[in-house]
Amino acid sequence: MEEIRELLAITTKLRAKYGRKFTLDGKLVGDIGEVLAAQKYNIELLPESTSIHDAKEKGTGRLVQIKASMKDNFYFPHESKMPDYFLCVHIHEYGNITTRYNGSGKYVFDNLIDNKIKGDSTGYVFSTKKLIELNQSVDETDRIKIR
């Protein structure tokens, strides 16, 4: 029971420090991923209620949607919510991240269309393997910069 109280106290501190909800209902991984990405990349997190995008790149103003996972799949939204830039990070057990995709959201969406990949009512699921493959084709000038 003490560990649960500690976990809840930690999420309260994180909420106050970063302005994210850090709820324990599945959104926690996404909030953690956004904060870790903001520490690694030259981005500024947008208010949590911002539609489609989670951050903007400092200096360029490019809008970024951040997806984080501790598993081997990432979600990509429908075209109506297609992000300008898409940043996918895998969170490892001890809090470091590995980038799986960093580039244009349109490039990911075009790949879905070209390969006739079907989504469901919420969007599409990409395997880590496919995102890494797509990431290898992204031009360096079309990436969000690391700090």
Key traits:
two-stranded antiparallel sheet; globular; five-stranded mixed β-sheet; 147 residues; 4 helices; 7 strands; alpha+beta
Tell me roughly what share of residues is in helical segments: 25-40%
Share of residues in strands: 15-25%
Largest sheet features: 5 strands, mixed
Shape: globular
| Distinct helical segment count | 4
* Number of DSSP E strands: 7
Mean pLDDT metric: 92
Structural class based on helices, strands and sheet pairing: alpha+beta
Overview in brief:
This protein is of the alpha+beta class.
Q: What would you note in describing this structure?
A:
With 147 residues, this protein is an alpha+beta fold. Helices cover 33% and strands 24% of the residues. It has four helices and seven strands; from the N terminus they run ααββββββαβα. The protein has helices at residues 2-18, 27-40, 105-114, 128-135; strands at residues 43-45, 55-57, 63-69, 73-76, 85-91, 97-104, 124-127. A five-stranded mixed β-sheet has the order 1-2-3-5-6. Strands 4-7 form a two-stranded antiparallel ribbon. The radius of gyration is 16 Å and the shape is globular. The chain starts with a helix and ends in a 12-residue tail after the last helix.
Secondary structure elements and their pairing?
Blueprint: H1 2-18, H2 27-40, E1 43-45, E2 55-57, E3 63-69, E4 73-76, E5 85-91, E6 97-104, H3 105-114, E7 124-127, H4 128-135
Parallel strand pairs: 3-5
Antiparallel strand pairs: 1-2, 2-3, 4-7, 5-6
